[in-house]
Structure formats: C-alpha cells, structure tokens
Amino acid sequence: LMLTVSLGVALCGAELVLGAIDLHPTTTELLARVAGEQGVPFDRRTRTDVLQALRESGLDAQISVFPMDVASRGGITVSGRTVFPLSSLAGKTTIYCNESGTWAIFDSDEQGFNNPAGVWNEDPDVVIVGDSFGQGACVQMGEDVAGQLREAGVHALNLGAAGTGPLAQLGILVEYAERVRPRTVFWLFYEGNDFSDLAHERDFELLRRYLGPGFSQ
Asked: Is the overall model pTM greater than 0.85, yes or no?
C-alpha cells in the first residue's frame, strides 16, 4: 500500500511539473511561436549550437561574458589577486542573444567591447556607457547606438556591458574612458533595473572603491 501511494504521488507530481513546463514555455519558445504566427523565420538553435557551428567553421567564437556574472562568482585571480573584469572576452566572435529570429553576433574589439577592430587607434568624439541598451542587445553588429553614430560620421566608442549597473559602469569609465578622454559621454540609464543593479553592486567592496579617487584595477 505504501509503495502504491508513493508511486501515485510521484506520478501526480511529475504530471504537475510537466504541465507547468507546458504552461510556462521558455522565452525562446514564446518568441519562436510569435514569429511563426507572423511568418518570420526564427533560428531555434541554442547558444551552444551556434557556438559549435561557428567553431566548426574555423572562427574563434565564444559566448558573451557578462561582467557581473563573473563578479558574483568572486571575480578571477590574476597574479595572486582578485580582479573583476568589466568587459567581455577580447578579439572573439561573440554570440550574444536572439530576440528577433537571428542570433546577434559581433566581433569584440581589443578590449572586449562591441566595436570594430581598430576603433581604439584614435581618441573618440563620443563614448557610450550603459548596460545591454548600450552594448546593443540582440541587434546585429553596427546597429547599436555607437554603430549608428559611426554611420552618421561620429567617431563613437561603445563601452556598454550587459548586466552592469551604475557602479560597474563607473568602473568602466575609469578603466577605459579616462585613457581616451572623449569630449562627450552618453550614459544610457535604464530605470527598469539600474537601481536594483546598483543595490547589488554595492555588495562588492572592490566596485565600491571606484567611488573614491585614484582607484583602478
């Protein structure tokens, strides 16, 4: 009797879980469903599938690295000390995201940001800093804000990094923007999550040190 009851409870639980999964499809499944209804092609491959395909084609590809994910894991150790990377991997074909049916893929620059190679060779007129809105989430390379400015003849440098909040973005300005001394900085502030990101970033003593003068990693 106990075995039968236990088996029955387990089967009911499994049915509930499967039902919940069916009721709550992934974001990709929802987007693909809407795209299908609109007659828009949608690439259903996962990031891992795309990564494998790019590497098999001979490209040095990586999945996009989010700085705060690395920070949440305690950073990385370099020469015996902990550092928090504030950009993605440098010089890589970077797989970002897919919201419109096509995977957004960009070639990261010499510092790991979404810029064409060689953009650091001369000081920019404009620097863009912010989270995914600055980096250019799910749009093709050159369609981000900095890319649109470059198309209009403005030498723009994209220092956007997805998942960052104001404190990490201050760090990006210190580590990367100060050296090129741009005439103008556009800070793309997103009220939807930048306040909560800031509250999370304040837990990291290393990031808080950017509030004081003279600190650099």
From this structure: no
